[in-house]
From TrEMBL:
It comes from Psychromicrobium silvestre. PANTHER family: BILIVERDIN REDUCTASE A (PTHR43377). Residues 7-121 form the Gfo/Idh/MocA-like oxidoreductase N-terminal domain. Keywords: NAD. SUPFAM superfamilies: Glyceraldehyde-3-phosphate dehydrogenase-like, C-terminal domain, NAD(P)-binding Rossmann-fold domains. GO terms for molecular function: nucleotide binding. Residues 130-239 form the GFO/IDH/MocA-like oxidoreductase domain. It comes from the Bacteria. This is Putative dehydrogenase. Signal peptide: none annotated. InterPro entries: Gfo/Idh/MocA-like_OxRdtase_N (IPR000683), Gfo/Idh/MocA_Oxidoreductases (IPR051450), GFO_IDH_MocA-like_dom (IPR055170), NAD(P)-bd_dom_sf (IPR036291).
Length: 334
């Protein structure tokens, strides 16, 4: 960071994610948490010496450079539009909104004011995925054939207003398009609801990106085993990123020449070296806040933009449409 200004930051939503945002805002150089708000109070005691305000309007009155909205998904549009109207740079937790129509209104509002609007797709800032993307860009895997993700575990009590596709699945949709640098074109999905809640709690989805990469995503809240894996398979082997441990492993294609002439005609692969790569492991939320700060200061721009967040939500809605119709769906806008 080269700009020496200290940015005044407001936080609305003091639940599970809000408490982590409060901690990291206080830790990051160049940021000062000046106001917090939550109509339901401060259950985790994160306000410190700050008064707990009751609304986004009260938050804005304090005078802010930037804000973080960690409110439930159904409130993202209302809170985001108020912050945009006040000219406050804003990071909204993912997904961008409860519907693509609401997401589009947020994109338009922030574009109209010429201010930074970002979406908290935090997996992009996981050290394993950050390193993986750089390696893919450098050609270490050659052509990418497939990106497969598995995101499974028990139900989190914090989620009430969306199903597993918009809550967890949007992580995988975003990171897949980001790693491949290509948008989703088609999707086919199956969902089920097994836990008695109103929304789907398990999904299996297969897609294809505009650049030809095929994708596969298993996401659920029904597994007692927590798993967060991304597997990218390509011309030279496969990378496996574990975003729980932030480990990145490279499975290299074997280079031993095939002696059997008739077998040599097949373009198969064999097992090669397996390397667990040593990478620095910064906290993803801290990296996300540093990127947002730098975007506000105009130093760099590698946040997840609201337009990208909208594209991700569009794919999530296509997943639900496909599951409901029992057929492949072409993603709108692709």
């Amino acid at each position: 960071m080269t700009d020496n200004r200290t940015l005044r930051v407001g936080l609305i939503g003091l639940g599970m994610m809000g408490r982590h945002h409060a901690r990291v805002i206080r830790e990051v150089e160049g940021l000062e948490l000046v106001a917090v708000a939550d109509a339901f109070g401060d259950p985790h005691g994160v306000a410190g010496g700050l008064p707990v305000l009751g609304s986004v309007d009260e938050l804005i009155e304090v005078g802010l450079d930037m804000a973080v909205a960690a409110v439930p998904t159904g409130m993202h549009e209302e809170v985001g539009l108020a912050l945009a109207a006040a000219g406050v740079h804003t990071l909204v937790e993912k997904p961008i909104a409860a519907s693509t129509a609401a997401g589009q209104r947020l994109v338009d509002a922030f574009d109209a004011r010429g201010i930074v609007g970002a979406v908290g797709h935090i997996e992009r800032f996981n050290p394993a995925l950050q390193s993986l993307r750089k390696r893919l860009q450098a050609g270490e895997l050659g052509e990418v054939y497939q990106i497969a993700t598995r995101r499974q575990g028990p139900f989190p009590a914090r989620i009430a207003d969306v199903g597993v596709v918009k809550d967890l699945g949007t992580h995988d949709i975003d990171l897949t398009a980001w790693l491949a640098q290509s948008e989703f074109e088609t999707i086919f999905a199956r969902t089920t609801t097994r836990s008695g809640r109103p929304h789907e709690d398990m999904v299996a989805a297969t897609g294809q990106l505009a650049n030809g990469t095929i994708t596969n995503h298993l996401v659920n809240w029904l597994s007692p085993m927590k798993e967060r894996l991304t597997v990218v398979t390509g011309e030279k082997g496969a990378f496996v990123a574990d975003t729980i441990t932030a480990d990145l492993t490279f499975f290299e294609n074997g280079t031993v020449a095939t002696q059997w002439e008739s077998m040599a005609a097949f373009r198969g692969v064999s097992e090669g070296n397996v390397t667990r790569l040593a990478i620095p492991k910064a906290e993803p939320l801290r990296t996300e806040h540093e990127a947002f700060r730098d975007a506000v200061l105009g130093v760099r721009n590698d946040v997840v933009t609201m337009r990208e967040g909208l594209n991700t939500l569009r794919v999530a809605e296509a997943v639900l449409e496909s599951a409901g119709a029992g057929q492949m769906v072409r993603v709108s806008g692709s």
